[in-house]
Amino acid sequence: MSFPIVVLISGSGSNLQALIDQSLQGQLNVRICAVISNKADAYGLERAKLADIPTHTVDHKLFSSREEFDAELQTIIDQYEPKLVVLAGFMRILTETFAKHYEGRMLNIHPSLLPKYKGLNTHQRAIGAGEKEHGVSVHFVSPELDAGSVILQASTEIAPDDTAESLAKKVHSLEHIIYPLAVKWFSEERLTFQKGIALFDEKALPENGILYNQALL
């Protein structure tokens, strides 16, 4: 029986495509029940339609508050009864009520080596700070922005001639590897969240989670 998930997006949906591809290839035993976007023109919706996945648009501009938007979003998600909610480039700050409703069963991917560089413009900020490496983190979602327990990280060297754009491409390629891997672990119950602590194979994860290497695949 495949593992039901719902994916939330705001843009191109490249991480969504990685999940679709791995599920079709049999590497990931999940069923994407629905893809939901807050933007009607998000290309990720087209990716979902091509894969015969139901889509929904919930335009945040039509709601008078974050609370009303999140309540509608939650209603749509819950009708699919997913075991996991996957934020894949979903560019909305979530309310505490929403985050707590899905506590321990909602993942996000963030383009930095958390806890460094929470928020936006992470690639340029890492270059500007003179960092030698940069990367990406998969984490459980908590009410505080980009602050939930880190599960998995992957890093890349920052070359002297890297720009924010070239560094973003490096990081994207890592995202498409480690996000499906984290979802796979969760679907296999190797990754769990108990009493506010992220566990892998029943052992508490360190602050920076697991550092990705090829041996993990």
Describe the secondary-structure layout.
Layout lengths: L2 E7 L4 H11 L5 E8 L5 H8 L4 E3 L8 H13 L5 E4 L8 H6 L4 E5 L11 H7 L4 E8 L9 E8 L6 H24 L3 E4 L2 E4 L2 E2 L5 E2 L6
Parallel strand pairs: 1-2, 1-4, 2-3, 4-5, 7-11
Antiparallel strand pairs: 5-6, 6-7, 8-9, 9-10
Helix pairs in contact: 1-6, 5-6
The CATH topology: Rossmann fold
Order of helices and strands: EHEHEHEHEHEEHEEEE
Structural class: alpha/beta
Contiguous runs where pLDDT drops below 50 for at least 5 residues: none
**Overall form:** globular
Distance between the termini: 22 Å
Order of the strands making up the biggest sheet: 3-2-1-4-5-6-7-11
Number of helices: 6
Helix share bin: 25-40%
- Count structural domains: 1
- Taken as a percent bin, the fraction of beta residues is 25-35%
CATH architectural designation: 3-Layer(aba) Sandwich
How much is the radius of gyration in Å? Answer: 17 Å
The tally of beta strands, per DSSP, is: 11
Averaged pLDDT = 95
What would you give as the CATH superfamily? Formyl transferase, N-terminal domain
**CATH class, anyone?**
Alpha Beta
Main sheet record: 8 strands, mixed
Question: Can you describe what's shown?
Answer:
- This protein is α/β, with parallel strands linked by helices and 217 residues long.
- It has a single domain (3-216), classed as Rossmann fold (3-Layer(aba) Sandwich).
- It contains six helices and eleven strands.
- An eight-stranded mixed β-sheet has the order 3-2-1-4-5-6-7-11, sandwiched between helices.
- Helix 1 (14-24) packs across helix 6 (164-187) and helix 5 crosses helix 6 (164-187).
